[in-house]
From TrEMBL:
<keyword id="KW-0808">Transferase</keyword>
<dbReference type="Pfam" id="PF01717">
    <property type="entry name" value="Meth_synt_2"/>
</dbReference>
<dbReference type="InterPro" id="IPR038071">
    <property type="entry name" value="UROD/MetE-like_sf"/>
</dbReference>
<dbReference type="InterPro" id="IPR002629">
    <property type="entry name" value="Met_Synth_C/arc"/>
</dbReference>
<dbReference type="GO" id="GO:0032259">
    <property type="term" value="P:methylation"/>
</dbReference>
<dbReference type="GO" id="GO:0003871">
    <property type="term" value="F:5-methyltetrahydropteroyltriglutamate-homocysteine S-methyltransferase activity"/>
</dbReference>
<keyword id="KW-0489">Methyltransferase</keyword>
<protein>
    <submittedName>
        <fullName>5-methyltetrahydropteroyltriglutamate--homocysteine S-methyltransferase</fullName>
        <ecNumber>2.1.1.14</ecNumber>
    </submittedName>
</protein>
<feature type="domain" description="Cobalamin-independent methionine synthase MetE C-terminal/archaeal">
    <location>
        <begin position="20"/>
        <end position="356"/>
    </location>
</feature>
């Protein structure tokens, strides 16, 4: 390094070079999932393929020098819905439309509430145990979960609200059960050995854009909800889950503007949500999208609390073109004007496959992105996390 600066050693997530969590699904896994959907193989056969591919992925992550590994979300079709469907009282539903992204509509899938929401016996706990059992000594498992606010938004959407109201006539009862269910799952994960939870959250990323008037109309007696009310709502339910968790459990969050088949859902800087997101949400670190001009400037980072870390998503996961090395380094130092360099890390802006379709790049491309992040981090912070 050219500067005689001593940086603190990162011993828990986020590390100096990191990942958001999802990886492109290998062809064998895609084929197995299609065969299972067609009734050609049973659940045990699909699980066996998932197990094999996850073990392969873990070894690739370790070989890439990553200190926090995930299962690539290989057991999921969606980054968020599969987790929701794992709750008791929540089931799969086919809506009239999928989610609308820039130039593309997703597959049609959402949730329906059939009973009181409960977090006992969630399948993600066993998923974590499997991953934990196959990482090498010194490698941590990062468990990714959709944020509580994400479930709330899904349930209070105009598409789902009428069914929700049959079980939950009041918002207060719904909020209470979401909080309780999340705490149950996270407690079970902690008891299984999890020490890093990442809450993936598109709710703030959507707020940076201008929302439809009826985005959520189930609050305040059915009247349209303002952006300020939504910010407080998201903050409240996320913090209600985070508060009271074990002190040695690290909770980070990833703020996303949408990542489906290399498309995006929202555009806008963090200025609109920096307060209260960056100074009042009780997380350890923020994984932030900064891979395009849709993310705005670094100015809102001035709002980040002094005890929190920021992971700069300066490398895009949406295509395979490698970023210019010096440009990325320059941008890291530009961000350091607002958050000290010692509290910064580097990653891609999102995962490589938030859904099983995956982004439009190759497996080699995704590993090249990670290698670039590692190389840049070693130059900027002088680390070698092999």
């Amino acid at each position: 390094m050219s500067e005689a600066i001593s940086f603190s050693k990162r011993t828990k997530s986020p590390f100096r070079y990191d990942i958001v969590g999802s990886f492109l699904r290998p062809e064998t896994l895609k084929q197995a999932r299609a065969q299972f959907a067609a009734g050609k193989i049973d659940r045990a056969a699909l699980t066996a393929v998932e197990d094999t591919e996850i073990i392969k992925l873990i070894k690739q992550e370790e070989a890439a020098g990553l200190k926090a590994a995930t299962d690539g979300e290989f057991r999921r079709s969606w980054w968020h819905l599969d987790f929701f469907w794992g709750f008791q009282g929540i089931s799969y539903k086919v809506p009239e439309h999928g989610y609308f992204f820039h130039g593309e509509e997703t597959r049609k899938a959402t949730v329906t509430v059939t009973d009181k929401i409960d977090g006992h016996n969630h399948p993600f706990v066993d998923h974590f145990k499997f991953t934990q059992a196959h990482v090498s000594k010194g490698v941590q498992v990062k468990q990714t979960l959709p944020a509580p606010a994400q479930l709330l938004v899904e349930l209070l959407s105009p598409t789902n609200l009428p069914e929700v109201r049959k079980i939950y006539p009041t918002d207060e009862a719904l909020f209470a059960d979401i909080t309780k269910a999340y705490k149950q799952v996270i407690t079970d994960l902690y008891d299984a050995g999890a020490r890093t939870i990442q809450l993936d959250d598109c709710t703030w990323g959507m707020l940076v854009a201008t929302l439809p008037k009826d985005f959520i109309n189930g609050l305040a007696g059915g009247e349209p909800t303002t952006d300020d009310e939504l910010k407080q709502l998201y903050l409240s339910i996320n913090n209600s889950v985070i508060d009271g968790l074990p002190a040695d459990l690290t909770v980070n969050t990833h703020i996303c503007r949408g990542n489906y088949h290399s498309t995006w859902a929202a555009a806008g800087g963090y200025d609109k949500v920096a307060d209260p997101l960056f100074n009042q949400e009780h997380v350890n670190a923020y994984y932030l999208e900064y891979d395009s001009d849709r993310s705005g400037s670094f100015d809102p980072l001035a709002k980040v609390s002094d005890n929190k870390l920021v992971v700069l998503g300066l490398l895009t996961s949406k295509d395979g073109k490698l970023e210019d090395r010096q440009t990325v380094i320059d941008r890291i130092h530009e961000a350091a004007k607002f958050v000290p360099l010692d509290r910064l890390c580097l990653s891609t802006q999102c995962g490589f496959a938030s859904t099983e379709e995956g982004n439009i790049l190759t497996s080699d491309d995704q590993w090249a992105k990670i290698a670039l992040a590692k190389s840049i981090a070693e130059e900027v912070w002088g680390v070698d996390e092999k």
